[in-house]
User: What shape does this take?
Amino acid sequence: MVKTNTPKKETKVKKVKDPNQPKKALSAYFIWLSANRPALKEKNPGASVAVIAKAGGKEWNELSPDDKKTWELKAAEDKIRYSKAMESYKGQNY
Assistant: This one.
């Protein structure tokens, strides 16, 4: 058996997530995708998740700025929700 002087890789310990921690705010794209995923699945029956995501990305990029504005406002509301939830969560845990 050959001995080497290379150090062994340290294994990283994953941080345990608190199940009570609020879910992060979604981006405008993810809010739009969750609302439009059923229609994308109908257009691409039997397609994998990756194919659906690519089709969604293509449609998102083709949306007009006015159409995106609606989803960006919803994302801003979700960001406010997340900020408030984190404030109360941190208040409970610290």
In short: The chain has a mean pLDDT of 91. The chain is about 65% helix and 0% strand. The first helix runs from residue 28 to 43.
